[in-house]
Amino acid sequence: MLEGLELLKRLVPEIIFLLEKRYNILRVVSYNQPIGRRLLSEQLELGERVVRSEVEFLKGQQLLLSDAVGVSLTKECEILMPQLAELIHQFRGLAFLEDYLEKKMELTKVCIVPGDLDEANTNLRELGKTAGKLVSEVVQDDWVIAVSGGTTMAEVARQIPQTDEKKGILVVPARGGLGEVVEIQSNTIAARIAKSLQGSYRLLYVPDDISEEALENFVLDHKILETIALAKRANLLLHGIGVPKIMAARRDLNWQDLLKWAKKLPVGEAFGYYFAEDGSVAVTTPTVGPRLEDLARFNQVVAVAGGKSKAKAILAVLKAGFVKVLITDQGAAEAMQKALEEEFLLYEGENS
Question: The domain containing residue 31 runs over which residues?
Answer without folding.
Answer: 2-91
